[in-house]
Design goal:
- The complex is a heterotrimer of chains A (about 475), B (about 180) and C (about 260).
- Chain A is mainly α.
- Chain A has a single domain, classed as Cytochrome C Oxidase, Chain A (Up-down Bundle).
- Chain A is about 75% helix and about 0% strand.
- Chain A has 14 helices and one strand.
- The longest helix of chain A has about 35 residues.
- With about 180 residues, chain B is α+β, with helices and mostly antiparallel strands.
- Chain B has two domains: about 60 residues, no CATH class; about 100 residues, Sandwich (Immunoglobulin-like), CATH 2.60.40.
- In chain B, a hairpin with a 2-residue loop joins strand 1 and strand 2.
- Chain B is elongated.
- Chain C has about 260 residues and is an alpha+beta fold.
- Chain C folds into two domains: about 80 residues, no CATH class; about 170 residues, Glutaredoxin (3-Layer(aba) Sandwich).
- In chain C, about 40% of the residues lie in helices and about 20% in strands.
- Chain C contains seven helices and 13 strands.
- In chain C, strand 4, helix 4 and strand 5 form a beta-alpha-beta unit.
- Chain C is elongated.
- Classes of the chains: A mainly alpha (about 475), B alpha+beta (about 180), C alpha+beta (about 260).
- Strand 1 of chain A pairs parallel with strand 11 of chain C.
């Protein structure tokens, strides 16, 4: 049962996420133009912007996934609006803390805040604790939120039902069905809980060193493992939450029967939970001190992670669409485009997850290239599709607007043009996270300018979408019921 | 063909194929197109796809894994060791081990077509140690992590001036961190 | 089969597998008495001096060319570190039960030592009949110790050399592939045995301060790196999540019961 208060909360999330998104894109464009030497920022300003860009993007799209799942969960289980409001309020506080530490305090250790860089203070002294406490707050609040949602699922479904174990049999039809949405949400929320617990432990380790005045020193190797476990997993799970909404909404808006949980869907998603927990090792390929077996597991898990997603989700979407008369609209259009972008980014990721390629691609622009592909042209589009769908719920309409051709063109040209500049840069050994490029690598300059220009086109599309959505989002607040 | 060019071509061609498939699938769902039928026997198709995809991944895995940096030039005794210690925001390169409290920077020359071992560490934060050739192509790299020494072995096929850049974000001077050595 | 129990079993076995896997990957030790001189002369060829053995004079290369060699520099009059160095080394080698082919060549750097002194010295450690151990002297002490950067100083007041405990690892081409200064754990020795057999070890740790939860710790009594709390920290999130989910299941059941009532 969706209530008006749930709609209002969801609407508040959407408005906040989109506003933050637009600002964060503008930061991104600013960085690209600075790298292209079209504008001239101080390095510490550049890196502060870089830090806030990364942490905002990861944060808002994790929230978008979580709040979408929260909204749709209310179809199957009793959800708590209070918990949702609590998450929203403290997320805003956390974001404000992080923005203050980076934009005012000039904290610029990167969103990955790789130990011991946050402690080599080259900014306002209060920047480090404010940033770390801001992140801790977000981690704890989202942890409570995710645990709450898992508890809500477990009230209606047993553990094995939540994991769709009863669907593994190929012959028997189970007594109680687990919708794919419940399965995927559950698996992803478990992943999110694991990575947020990791974040909490990581923060505890960092605070122990920070407040003991050198009494304790951390192991850089351990902290690096924890950092990437957290960072990689949250980005990955955010995308999986987006896929959960796709499973739920896409058939519905396309006039096709709902997706069913079959044995391969169940198995695929169960497996993905395990692959995702070891795939992060691919961030440490160039740390030769990491045991070699971990590196091999990293490459293996990164490869295997593609199997459930490709064989299950992508083929499901293809089978849903292929040869069937689909009522195309903005919602399923964005989902379909998002799946395409996700796969293309996935190929870029697989290439980079190969150790022998990684040695020449690691920390070049290839890295932002692939993750911007499956975020900006994948996960973001999944969430936007949800926003459009829920926007119609806000105004009680089943009449979804068409995908405007100009908007589609802006998205595709802007989005892919933007990431292609990254790919070309990566293949030309241009490093990532440079405020400006040294003269030997000045090919990066022109690529950056072009990338910034394409990103501006993408921003236009997002502004268009923002204006479209705002009309519906604001209406919820004026509804009496 | 160098790895970077190969992967770029691989990426763009697979991206194009994916885009074409997506477009084809999309077209098949238009109300105007006729004679298209929805997919028959999807489980079998999934099975075939799973098999092909798994096979491709397994082949790539077994071909690429031995080329990992932990396995290359391992059966040779290096002709030269170069010690590298990174700091915010410079590299120290020396022919002798570098102690944290005794900064040491030497002009480094290494032989062409001989195995060289770089012993790379950091004295403050995480840094990257990436070697670029004269055409500004990334040749090889490792991370410089405080408290640990990573051994990077390489055989330089071309003589010339090689540049070193930092490839792990290390603070506001990250983009300025560089050094160089000569391959003769 | 009860799927719920199956789940639990599955999680349990996955957990155990992970622990076993992790424990197999222990690869390095951490020690405090690290000497940066250990890295001097790496991959340089040792001076091919003539040594005096029971079989007569021969070149050093005849030893290391037949099998990889650990060269130990001692003198028999030593009251200091030489004795513990040899006894520790021989103990570690026995404990490790190494299948790899290698020799230990003990060379005196004291011109006063005769071959007979070295024989007696070997007997002291019951090593005179061990084919792996060779005790020799040389007339060319200076080029030998210079090529491995070993600088003993004669202290005439106590009639003793002031010197380091040094092990030099030589591969079959006479290259110095690793040095160990001071009496160290068996992990260092294992690393040396790998390196004299031309196995590539990709990294090693440097001395550090009191570290909070490192992934591996060195145990001085067993001389091995052990799983330390750091690895548990890496496993903790999954375990904590498992506990959270279990308690949520309990909670869910309770709530369902009250709903039914």
């Amino acid at each position: 049962m969706t209530t008006l208060s749930l709609k209002k909360t969801t609407s508040a999330w959407i408005i906040t996420i989109l506003v933050l998104f637009i600002i964060a894109i503008s930061f991104g464009i600013t960085m690209r133009f600075n790298q292209g030497r079209d504008i001239n920022l101080n390095p510490d300003t550049f890196y502060s912007i870089m830090t806030v860009h990364g942490v905002t993007m990861i944060g808002i799209w994790s929230c978008a996934g979580m709040m979408a799942v929260n909204y749709l969960l209310s179809r199957y289980v009793k959800t708590s609006v209070k918990l949702n409001v609590f998450a929203y309020a403290f997320t805003v506080v956390g974001v404000l803390m992080i923005w203050a530490s980076t934009l005012i305090g000039k904290f610029h250790a990167g969103w990955t805040f790789l130990y011991p860089l946050p402690f080599r203070v080259a900014w306002a002294k209060w920047g480090t604790p404010l940033f770390l406490w801001g992140l801790t707050l977000l981690a704890v609040v989202w942890l409570v939120w995710a645990i709450g949602m898992v508890a809500q699922i477990l009230r209606n479904y047993s553990l094995s039902e939540s994991l769709a174990f009863q669907h593994l049999s190929r012959t028997k039809t189970p007594a109680k069905e687990t919708p794919p949405f419940i399965l995927i949400s559950f698996v992803s929320l478990i992943g999110i809980i694991i990575c947020l617990v990791t974040a909490a432990i990581l923060m505890a380790l960092l605070f122990a060193e920070y407040y003991s005045n050198g009494g304790f020193v951390n192991d850089p190797l351990l902290v690096k493992n924890l950092t990437y476990f957290f960072g990689h997993t949250i980005a990955n799970e955010a995308l999986y939450l987006g896929l959960a909404t796709l499973y739920e909404i896409m058939p519905e808006v396309s006039g096709r029967p709902k997706f069913k949980t079959t044995w391969y869907v169940a198995l695929g998603w169960q497996l993905s939970l395990f692959f995702i927990l070891t795939a992060f090792f691919h961030h440490l390929y160039m740390d030769f001190v990491q045991p070699i077996s971990f590196q091999i597991i990293g490459q293996m898990a990164s490869y295997l992670a593609s199997i459930p997603s490709a064989v299950v989700t992508v083929l499901s979407v293809i089978f849903l669409v292929f040869g069937n008369k689909i009522k195309w609209n903005i919602v399923n259009g964005l989902f379909f485009l998002g799946v395409t972008g996700w796969i293309i980014g996935g190929i870029g990721a697989l290439i980079d997850a190969t150790i022998s390629n990684n040695i020449v691609l690691h920390n070049t622009l290839w890295v932002p290239a692939h993750f911007h592909t499956y975020n900006a042209m994948g996960n973001v589009l999944f969430s936007l599709a949800f926003f459009f769908w829920v926007g119609n719920e806000f105004v009680d309409s089943k009449d979804y607007s068409k995908f405007n051709k100009l908007l589609l063109a802006l998205l595709i040209i802007g989005g892919f043009g933007f990431v292609i500049m990254f790919y070309i840069g990566g293949a030309n050994s241009i490093p990532r996270r440079y405020s400006v490029y040294p003269k030997e690598l000045n090919l990066g300059d022109i690529l950056a300018t072009l990338g910034g220009a394409f990103a501006s086109v993408y921003l236009l599309a997002i502004l268009w979408i923002f204006i479209d959505l705002m009309k519906k989002c604001i209406k919820v607040f004026s509804s009496a019921r | 063909m160098k790895v970077q060019l190969f992967v770029l071509i691989l990426f763009f061609s697979s991206a194009s194929v994916i885009a074409l498939i997506a477009y084809y699938v999309f077209r098949s769902s238009q109300p105007t197109t006729t004679n298209k039928e929805s997919v028959k026997d999807p489980i079998k198709k999934r099975g075939i796809f799973l098999f092909i995809w798994f096979f491709i991944l397994a082949v790539i895995f077994s071909v690429t894994l031995p080329k990992s940096p932990y396995y290359i030039f391992t059966d040779e005794t290096p002709n030269q060791v170069v010690y590298v210690a990174a700091r915010q925001f410079f590299f120290m390169l020396a022919n002798e081990p570098i102690e944290p409290n005794v900064p040491k920077m030497e002009k480094i020359e290494v032989p062409v077509n001989k195995t060289v071992e770089f012993r790379v560490t950091s004295f403050d934060v995480n840094h990257g140690f990436a070697i670029y050739n004269e055409r500004s192509e990334l040749v090889t790299q490792t991370q410089a992590m405080p408290g640990y020494v990573n051994k990077l072995r390489w055989k330089f096929k071309e003589p010339g001036n090689y540049k070193i850049f930092c490839l792990e974000y290390c603070g506001a001077g990250h983009q300025l961190m560089q050094s160089s050595f000569v391959v003769k | 089969m009860d799927i719920y129990r199956f789940n639990e079993k599955m999680y349990k076995s996955i957990f155990i597998c992970t622990i076993v896997l992790l424990s197999n990957y222990i690869s390095f030790a951490q020690e405090s008495n690290y000497n940066y001189d250990e890295e001097k002369d790496i991959y340089k060829v040792i001076s091919n001096v003539t040594i005096e053995t029971e079989q007569g004079n021969q070149k050093l290369s005849t030893i290391y060319e037949t099998s990889p060699t650990i060269l130990v520099l001692i003198y028999t009059r030593c009251y200091g570190i030489c004795n513990p160095l040899i006894s520790n080394l021989s103990e570690q080698i026995q404990q490790l039960d190494i299948k790899k082919d290698f020799r230990v060549l003990v060379v005196s750097f004291d011109a006063a030592d005769r071959l007979s002194d070295m024989e007696r010295y070997a007997q002291q450690f019951d090593l005179q009949n061990d084919a792996r151990w060779i005790f020799v002297t040389t007339k060319q002490i200076k080029p030998l110790i210079e090529s491995v950067n070993f600088n003993p100083k004669w202290d005439s007041t106590i009639q003793q050399f002031d010197h380091n405990a040094l092990l030099v690892g030589l591969n079959t081409n006479g290259y110095i592939t690793k040095k160990i200064i001071g009496i160290r754990g068996s992990n260092e020795l294992q690393a040396m045995l790998k390196e004299i057999n031309n196995e590539f070890i990709v990294s090693y740790p440097l001395p550090r301060k009191n570290m909070l939860f490192s992934c591996f710790t060195y145990n001085p009594t067993t001389g091995k790196s052990e799983l330390s709390i750091g690895l548990l920290v890496m496993l903790a999130p999954a375990l904590i999540t498992f506990i959270i989910v279990l308690s949520l299941i309990k909670l869910g059941k309770k709530q369902r019961k009250t709903l039914v009532k």
